[in-house]
Amino acid sequence: MHVDASRPIAPADQDAIRKRNDEPSPPASHDPNPKPRVPLLALRSITRTYRLPGSEPVPVLRGVELHVGAGEFLALMGPSGSGKTTLLQIIGCLDRPDGGSYHFSGDEVSALSDDALSRIRGARIGFVFQFFNLIPQMGVIDNVALPLLYLGISSSERRRRAIHALERVGLGHRLGHRPTQLSGGEQQRCAIARALVAEPPLLVGDEPTGNLDSKTGAQIMELLHELHRGGLTIVLVTHDAEVGSQAQRLVKMRDGRIDGTAE
Question: pTM of the prediction?
Answer without folding.
Answer: 0.83
